[in-house]
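Continuing the series of single-chain predictions for the mutant panel. This is the parent chain; the variants come on the following pages.
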Amino acid sequence: WCSSLILLLNEFGHLISLTTFDISKYSNLTSLLNDLKNLISLTTFKI
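Parent structure:
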């Protein structure tokens, strides 16, 4: 449970850094979608 929480915080940090540093909008969008998938899988399969 604790490790999944840490992973979730890491994903949120990743999302924040993606939205803050807008380098390339297309690659940011795909990375953001990947992060959302990661968040969904983390919350769905709680280990």
